[in-house]
Known about the structure:
It comes from Bacillus paralicheniformis. The protein contains 6 helices and 9 strands; from the N terminus they run βββββαβαβααβαβα. It is α/β, with parallel strands linked by helices. 30% of the residues lie in helices and 21% in strands. Strand 6, helix 2 (134-145) and strand 7 form a beta-alpha-beta unit. The protein has a single domain (5-272), classed as 3-Layer(aba) Sandwich (Rossmann fold).
Amino acid sequence: MDIKKTITSLENLSQESLAFGEKFILIVEHKQINFEFFLNIKSTSDALLVLGSGAIDPKKHSLPVFHRHSWADEIACSSIFYNDPTLYLGNINIGWGQGDEEHFYLETISNIVIKIADILKIKPEKTTFYGSSAGGYTSLFLSGLFKGSTALVNNPQTIVYNYYQSHVLKMFEVSYKKKGLEDFPQHLRYRMNIPELYKKINYIPNIIYYQNLACEHDINRHFNPFIKDIFELTKQKPYVKKVECHFYYDEEKGHNPMSKEETLAILNERTGKY
């Protein structure tokens, strides 16, 4: 990708001046890992959209991967697209931002996005995390860590280990050197379970959840367990913001997200309301 690159560290990020009106890649080094972001900052909006990636096809994509970055000009507000460095760790095509046992990459990505928003003087309430599938999972997670923000997701995973086992077991092996969930430390399971995260942090962010009812795997393994657990959490403590569910039925698309046109219309309407 022939585009301007800015390289810094997490410690020095707050001193960076981020360019408006041009697309560039920001590389933030932390604990010897490069976290890569594609940015398009617009002076015409005080809202921010943060977009995550789903599964990649190694035959079609070389790392870093910034899914949907070609949409940047059509997104009305400033946008940040993030690569998942977990994909550098081994032969996997989904990493869910896990990193390894000592360094949980999603927490670092969260810290970086919060610092970027602070540099740009964009409020959490004007920040939306968007993604589908695995990108939906990371969006739900990051929004929980960025208090006041919103997660807008389409057919997301909500519990990583409920996804197809071939992908899950590869991630376990590459990230954690484990053979399966039974070997995984109990105190780290919140990393792979959105309701467990929300329980741990005593907070549920604003969520706008689009689900294709034609995808039974998503409904049975991700949507239903998520809603059941969220319901139980809200009975125990009133820390839920707002969970808004939108259903549609499209047999042809199945787990795949809504079209670019539909998605952009929803995203631009959402960020334009701020």
